[in-house]
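User: I'm curious whether this sequence folds into something compact or stays loose and floppy. Could you predict its structure so I can see for myself?
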Amino acid sequence: MQGTWFLNGTLLDTLIGQSYRAENNPNFPPGSGLNGTVSDVVARATLAPTDWLDMTYRTRLDKNNFDTRFADALATVGVPKFRVTAGYIYSTYNPYTYYDQPPPPPVGSGFYTPRNEITLGAATSFSQYRLAAYLRRDLATNQMVGVGATGAYENECFIFDVKFFRRYTSIENDHGATTVLFQLTFKTIGQFGFHAF
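Assistant: Here's the prediction. I'll summarize afterward.
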């Protein structure tokens, strides 16, 4: 169910939902909120009281006792010339460790360690250029989770994007990964991409 309200320049957008299935699906990982025939309750609220401030909160609540299983809060302040973003993520499990062993993860594995992360970012746009950067850090382990940056040039014919991502967390014991992506979008034709590494 979704509701959106506009009042004197203020926007409030809310959503709440739950899914129902006739049969259990064993393919969903533990902690996903999709085990069983009834899912966990999900909700989202976005408040934008002005054009220079917006806040979003997303959550997933346990279907049986309404305990918080996932929470994500994000606030952005600024104008298109310069915007700053700060966020917080909490989950009762750590999805980065799901593939470290055959499913389901054994009791006591890192998968069941709650995740507490902060995100900080900044973005700017001027003329035909856009730049942005962010970092994410796990407060529980006091380690970086990831960093990223993007730059773009846009004119009336095309958009050229360069994106950089560095993941410090290990998935299947890969010790993190670095991605550089080049993307060229022709506004009348479509997109072409190149994944450098």
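Summary: The chain has a mean pLDDT of 88. The radius of gyration is 20 Å.
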